[in-house]
Amino acid sequence: MTHTRSILIGTVVALLAVSSGVAHAEDGPSIPPGTEASASAPVELDANDPDLKLPDGATLAEPKVLDIKQVVEDQSGDERREDTNSDVKFALQAEVLFGKDSAKLGAAAKSRIAAIADEIKTQNATRIRVFGFTDNLGSSAHGDVLSRKRANAVHGVLVQELSDSNVTYEVRGYGEQYPIADNSTEAGRKKNRRVEISFPRTDS
After folding, report:
1. Is residue 18 within 8 Å of 27, Cβ to Cβ?
2. Greater confidence, 52 or 131?
3. 76: nearest Cα among 120, 108, 104
4. Are the C-beta atoms of residues 192 and 176 closer than 8 Å to each other?
5. What are the two backbone dihedrals, phi and then psi, of residue 131, each rounded to the nearest 5 degrees?
6. Mean pLDDT for all residues in the chain
7. Cβ(99)–Cβ(149) under 8 Å?
8. What crossing angle do the helices spanning 140-161 and 107-123 adopt, rounded to 10°?
9. Percentage of residues in the chain with pLDDT exceeding 90?
10. Could you tell me if 67 and 83 are in contact, meaning their C-beta atoms sit under 8 angstroms apart?
C-alpha cells in the first residue's frame, strides 16, 4: 500500500506542476504515468488476504435477472410502448383518443385500441390494467373524474374487442398523479395527458 501511495502522490504532484504552468528544462516529453521505464509492475493480489474474503457466516445474494426495459415511441409521440421482462405497457396520448376535455372516443381512436387488443390476444394476457392520467391544469378533482371517464371509455372498447377472452380488468383514473414529463411545459403536459394499457407478458 505504501508503494501505491507514493506513485499516486507523485502523479498528483506532476499534474499540479503541469496545471500551474511550472516546467523544468530537464523535463522530457510527457510520458503517461505508469509507463516509465522505471515503473514497477501492478501490485499482486494475495488470494488469502482476509480483506478479500467474506466474513464468517456471510453469503452472496442469490443471482437474479435484471429487469430490462425497452421503450419505443412513434415519431409523433402519440403512442409509446414499454416492454420489460414481466410487462407490456402502451401509453396513448389523450389528444389522439379524445377531444379537449372529452371522454368520447372517435373511430380512429377505437382502431388504435383494437390494435392493442390484438397484442393482448397474442400475449394470452388475462389481467389488463387501464389507467387514465391528466396534466396539472385545472382542479385536481376535475382531473380525477376526467381521467377515470377516459379510462372507462378505453376499457369499453377492450371489452368489445376481447369479448371471447377470459379477461379481468383494473380500471382507474389517477388525474395529475404520476406525471411522466414536466408539467411546466405544454410538450410535457401533452405527454402526461394519457391512457395506459398494461398487462403481464408471456413467452408466446
Report:
1. no
2. 131
3. 108
4. yes
5. -120, 135
6. 80
7. no
8. 60
9. 50
10. no
Distance CA 70, CA 119 (A): 16
Cell of 157: 372498447
What is the distance between the alpha carbons of residues 81 and 92, in angstroms, rounded to a whole number? 9
Other CB atoms within a 10 A radius of the CB of residue 168 amount to 7
Q: Which helix (H) or strand (E) holds 130?
A: strand 127-133
Cell numbers representing residue 86 in the block? 414481466
2-29: b (≥16 Cβ within 10 Å) or e: eeeeeeeeeeeeeeeeeeeeeeeeeeee
Q: Locate cell 410535457: which residue?
A: 188
How many helices, marked H, and strands, marked E, lie in the chain?
5, 6
Q: With CA atoms as reference, report the closest residue to 194 among 137, 180, 185, 161.
A: 180
Grid cell for residue 81: 410502448
Write the pLDDT tens digit of every residue in 176-201: 999 999 999 999 999 999 999 999 98
Q: Which domains does the chain have, with CATH numbers?
A: 2-52 (no CATH), 70-200 (3.30.1330.60)
- pTM here is 0.65
